[in-house]
Amino acid sequence: MRESMLFSGFLLVLLGLALPGTQGKIFSRCDLVKTLRQHAFEGFMGKTVADWICLVQHESNFNTKAFHDNGASRDYGIFQINSQYWCEDGKTRGSKNACHTSCSKFQDDNIEDDMQCAKKISQEAHGLTPWYGWKNHCKGKNLSPYVKGC
């Protein structure tokens, strides 16, 4: 009995150690504000860091492992970058892969490539309209609370 309880406890510890890795990195709001400011997002394509923070909150809730299956395509990572146009996931027919990268790269903890691709998307769209999270929750609103205190 004692051995099975020890084994069960051991399995729970292993499971607990494994699960955080499946969640990806979840940025704090202020850590992401700092990162975006360091990478010249303030004023990029006429948008503020507050616009980007609002977008990320509503697209991925700051989670680098975020994933959404749209049926014919999928959205990946903290910026929810779509496989139809921007990355290759091996599942999306006719993917344009305009950011020239694997979609899985948008789900790791390093968001350098995610930021680069998000800027490319924003440039090509002349703004943030490709992201429904931004269009539906951020566009035309006072976004100063998204960066307040950071």
Strand content: 5-15%
Could you tell me the radius of gyration in angstroms?
Answer: 18 Å
Helix percent band: 40-55%
Which geometry do the CA atoms define?
A: globular
Total helices: the number is: 5
User: Care to count the β-strands?
Assistant: 3
Distance, first to last CA: 53 Å
Average pLDDT number: 88
* Strand and helix order: HHHEEEHH
Q: How many strands, which pairing sense, and closed or not: the largest β-sheet?
A: 3 strands, antiparallel
Spatial order of the strands forming the largest sheet = 1-2-3
- Helix vs. strand class: mainly alpha
Spans of 5+ residues with little confidence (pLDDT < 50)?
1-21
Tell me about this structure.
With 150 residues, this protein is mainly alpha-helical. It has 5 helices and 3 strands; from the N terminus they run αααβββαα. It has helices spanning 2-23, 29-38, 49-60, 112-125, 132-137; strands at 67-69, 74-76, 81-82. Strands 1-2-3 form a 3-stranded antiparallel sheet. A hairpin with a 4-residue loop joins strand 1 and strand 2. The longest helix has 22 residues, at 2-23. The radius of gyration is 18 Å and the shape is globular. Mean pLDDT is 88; it is low at 1-21.
